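User: Predict the complex with N,N-dimethyl-L-histidine.
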Amino acid sequence: MPEMNASIKLLDLEPAEDDLLGDVLAGLAATPKRLPSKYFYDAVGSRLFERICEQPEYYLTRTELEIMRDHAEDMAQALGPGVRLVEYGSGAGLKTRQLLKVLQAPVAYVPVEISRSALLASVGRLAEEFPGIEMLPVCADFTQRVALPEPGRPPRRTVVYFPGSTLGNFENAVAVKLLAQMRALVGSGGAVLVGLDRKKDPAMIEAAYNDAAGVTAEFTLNLLARLNRELDADFDLSRFRHQARYDAVKGRIETHITSSCAQSVSVGGQRVEFGEGEAMLVEYSCKYDQADVERMAASAGLVVERTWTDPSDWFSVQLLAH
Ligand code: AVI
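Assistant: Here is the predicted structure with N,N-dimethyl-L-histidine placed in the model:
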């Protein structure tokens, strides 16, 4: 367990451990088969995701950073002084730092993260960099209802920051439910600042999820490698392939792991049969035009107050107000 700076107060809501075996067996018993994308992010998968962000085709991270570089001050002004900034995720990234640097007299920074070790490691670094900001980390699953810690000074406004287009990894109905939970959390006068990828040329989107160096394919197939490591499964990775296609009607990348031949695999002591060409759905990455964002926000009881984009309008950061 990493050492905790004495001034950092952890609120540990003791999130339930993931049921990897139960979730995987349920997904493999479904028709069509599917596996939850949240299981991509073990230590190997998290490192591979960092490498994806550096691939020339994966424009998302670079473009969102550019938006933060160019507009963080304007965002801070729009948020106003005395904000309690709640971040969904550990806040390890540059985007958070860019925002914390320019917020006007923030009252507290509250990262909400399920991994206690990732949370403490990142908040420890942020506490050194921002000694004037009260750090109130919460160990919790942000897809569940979360109770917020009270800062020393009363906040003027609570704002949830959810960067990285992670909301796009949830199906629309679930994304709306998450936004509605954020709305309840921030209360009246609060807001949500969310990074969302844009709809654009399908070839450009597909290239981002099929990089030439094969890092995304390795990231996807690491899910099977993880099941081999943790569930004693015997997936032969050379007999499965990564497939990411953009569905222009649904406005989302759908990533599958496809079996190259008919085969039988053992997972957690059970045999699972795959047909030749059978595809398991492993991830959605939804893309949004402005009308989509407005619709989704309205369904969650929120209003789009401001939108920041890059000059090519490839990515957007949206301020949704309650
Ligand atoms: C984390 N998330 C926003 C990434 C995305 O673009 O959907 C995950 C990812 N999957 C493949 N490449 C990147």
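The first helix runs from residue 20 to 29.
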